[in-house]
């Protein structure tokens, strides 16, 4: 029986990078460190940025993909997995498939916001996603097998014991948006003590300012610290999900549940596929959430 050798493309930034790194750790534990190789897109991007005399993203991506192919073939890869937002081109994927390497992409982003999937689906044997919508049909028409695969918690219950005081009524971790700000400002106006963190809040200037604990990327240790001191963990979509059957579920909902907080989330269809067997509370409007909390 041929031993599987996995080659994983690690995205350069944000939550996409964190999820891919966790996936790499799981595969390493399953197959052994000798059968997995991680290709760090961030390291290559930074390296080529220092070498190039011109700031040309196309050249940087091309060089990165050339390096990826060489490294992948040299490793004698049998399975290639790319994390969401990895800058892997369709040309690269076709080269790998010609070498009988199974190609897989885990797309744990919103298909409405990260639209690159339309360009690369034909290069993947398997396309894993946290949403459905047009994805299953598009994959079928382009020779790729679609799979629904939610993410999981980035922390464990052991390192997120609830603080007995729980000084915050509710916590929200994520980037700001008009809809999210409106909901959070309504909760703050009702007298609730909120804990807010996430990239982008540095530019916010309003009544939530004193409740922002971290205004940059919030990693799993920061998230765990915030959640274990909160009674409720909030899941809020970037935009108002009313009437949208394909609103994706933030991976952070799993961290909320792992921390032992009450999960309060919008009532959207994908909840029931993503959180089977889990306990949570839902709301359908801003007025309703204020009444629940």
User: How would you write the strand order of the largest sheet?
Assistant: 2-1-3-4-5-6
Q: Counting H and I runs of at least 4 residues, what is the number of helices? A: 11
Give, in order, the helices and strands. EHEHHEHEHEHEEHEEHEHEHEH
Low-confidence stretches: none
Task: For the record, give the distance between the C-alpha atoms at the N and C termini, rounded to a whole number.
Answer: 56 Å
CATH class category name of the largest domain: Alpha Beta
**How many domains in all?**
2
Specify the structural class: alpha/beta
- Approximate helicity band: 25-40%
Number of strands: 12
CATH topology of the largest domain: Rossmann fold
Shape, please? Answer: globular
Q: Roughly what is the average pLDDT, rounded to an integer?
A: 91
Report the β-strand fraction as a percent range: 15-25%
User: What would you give as the CATH superfamily of the largest domain?
Assistant: Glycogen Phosphorylase B
The description of the largest β-sheet is: 6 strands, parallel
CATH architecture heading of the largest domain = 3-Layer(aba) Sandwich
CA-based gyration radius: 21 Å
């Amino acid at each position: 029986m041929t031993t599987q050798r996995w080659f994983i493309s690690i995205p350069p930034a944000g939550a996409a990078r964190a999820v891919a790194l966790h996936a790499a750790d799981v595969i390493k534990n399953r197959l052994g460190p000798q059968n997995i190789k991680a290709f760090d897109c961030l390291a290559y991007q930074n390296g080529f940025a220092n070498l190039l005399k011109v700031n040309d993203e196309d050249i940087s991506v091309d060089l990165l993909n050339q390096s990826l192919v060489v490294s992948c073939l040299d490793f004698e890869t049998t399975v290639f997995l790319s994390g969401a937002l990895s800058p892997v081109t369709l040309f690269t994927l076709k080269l790998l498939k010609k070498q009988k390497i199974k190609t897989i992409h885990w797309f744990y982003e919103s298909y409405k916001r990260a639209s690159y999937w339309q360009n690369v689906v034909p290069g993947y044997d398997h396309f894993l996603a946290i949403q459905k919508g047009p994805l299953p049909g598009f994959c079928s028409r382009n020779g790729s097998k679609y799979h629904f695969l939610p993410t999981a918690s980035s922390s464990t219950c052991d390192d997120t014991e609830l603080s007995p005081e729980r000084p915050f009524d509710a916590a929200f971790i994520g980037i700001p948006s008009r809809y999210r700000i409106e909901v959070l400002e309504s909760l703050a106006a009702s007298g609730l003590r909120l804990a807010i963190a996430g990239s982008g809040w540095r530019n916010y200037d309003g009544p939530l300012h004193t409740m922002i604990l971290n205004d940059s990327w919030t990693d799993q240790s920061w998230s765990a610290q915030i959640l274990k001191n909160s009674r409720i963990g909030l899941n809020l979509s970037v935009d108002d999900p009313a009437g949208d059957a394909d609103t994706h579920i933030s991976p952070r909902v799993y961290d909320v549940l792992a921390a032992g907080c009450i999960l309060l989330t919008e009532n959207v269809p994908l909840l029931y596929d993503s959180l089977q067997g889990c306990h949570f509370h839902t709301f359908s409007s801003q007025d309703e959430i204020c009444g629940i909390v």
